[in-house]
Design a protein that fits this description.
This protein has helices at residues 10-16, 24-40, 68-81, 91-103, 108-112, 118-121, and strands spanning 4-6, 43-46, 60-61, 64-65, 88-90. It has 124 residues and is mainly alpha-helical.
């Protein structure tokens, strides 16, 4: 598999994904990525810029995210998990760090409490 880049906050989104999204194309892409991560446990590069999930997002304009919120979400996930932009980490380890340091400590609302999808997460 080629290098797999993943926005830090997407490690949270993936854990709560229920087959909903901005469009059918976005949702199918997300399903594909979730399946790939779960079955292959690839090494990912944590990146605070657009990734494969962003490729089908309406906020992605020529490879640049037009949503100001996601940069804040990414910074907070990096901070709380003790990671840096560009970190290489196995998917399962990243998921574990997010579960332990954000979800396990009740800090999800601190990261993305103003997200339009927060109703899905249930514990905000």
């Amino acid at each position: 598999m080629s290098d797999f880049s993943l926005r830090p906050h997407h490690a949270l989104c993936i854990g709560f994904f229920q087959g909903k999204g901005y469009s059918g194309e976005f949702t199918e892409n997300m399903k594909y990525i979730v399946n790939l991560l779960e079955t292959e446990n690839p090494e990912v590069t944590v990146t605070a810029s657009t990734d494969r999930i962003c490729s089908k997002c309406p906020h992605n304009q020529n490879g640049v995210c037009t949503s100001d919120k996601v940069n804040t979400y990414d910074k907070k996930v990096l901070e709380l998990c003790g990671l840096e932009n560009g970190t290489h980490i196995k998917w399962e380890k990243l998921r574990s760090e997010v579960k332990l340091k954000i979800l396990g400590n009740g800090r999800l609302n601190e990261v993305c409490g103003d997200c339009k999808w927060q109703y899905i997460c249930g514990n905000l």
